Amino acid sequence: MKKLLALSSLLTVYCLLPTAFGQTVYISEKTEISFFSKAPVEDIDAVNKMSTSIITLHNDSIAFKVPITGFVFKDGLMQRHFNSNYMESDKKGYENATLKGKINEDIDFKTDGEYKVTCTGVLRMHGVDQPRNFEGIFTVKEGKVNLKSKFKVLVADHKIKIPSDKLMNIGKEIEVSVSADYKLYVKP
Fold first, then answer.
1. According to DSSP H, which parts of the chain are helical?
2. Which of 21, 50, 57, 136 could crosslink 70 through cysteines, CB 3.0-4.6 Å?
């Protein structure tokens, strides 16, 4: 239900834009975001399957919405600490990470193939906007579109504070992996 509400709100925002009317839009209800942090004491990893994404072809825009509380850890205590102590996901403006960007290459979503792309945009996380460039690969097969991407995020770039006694437990750099399956959005 939460996933549908998040996707609905994301689509509503894009569909209300005057330039989006009558345009080709792809949505992903199956967006998986995972991260991995390597540290001397322990490795940390989590997966979020509640994320959504949208691509609007007329302006090559791409957007992601990632609910922070959607990250699931193997250890429940670690998950609680992540949300309350580090990401502060209960604070207004910290509940979601978002990416709003532009795909720099032309992609023919009607032709099967693999397309290496770059995206220029703004990653908002922990209330902090950071301009970023990302690389990824779109795979188009029989009308289905998949995006895969990997990139690194420095926790300091988003003002995520790590207490000095936890520096050995949490890496300063987080590797993020994205896998999104898109389908053509058809207005009901």
1. 2-16, 76-81
2. 50
pLDDT (tens digit per residue) in 83-133 = 888 888 899 999 999 999 999 999 999 999 999 999 999 999 999 999 999
What is the mean predicted confidence (pLDDT) over 140-150?
Answer: 95
Decide the pairing of beta strands 96-103 and 71-73. unpaired
Structure tokens at 90: 């209960």
Instruction: Estimate the share of the chain in helix, then strand, then coil, as percent rounded to the nearest 5.
Output: 20, 50, 30
How do strand 71-73 and strand 44-56 relate by DSSP bridges? antiparallel
CA distance 110 to 94: 37
Report residue 182 as tokens: 């898109």
pLDDT digit string, tens, across residues 5-14: 444 444 444 4
Task: Identify the DSSP state of 88.
Answer: -
Q: What is the CATH number of the domain that holds 87?
A: 2.40.128.110
In this predicted structure, the answer to whether residue 71 has a pLDDT above a threshold of 80 is yes
Provide the number of structural domains found in the chain. 1
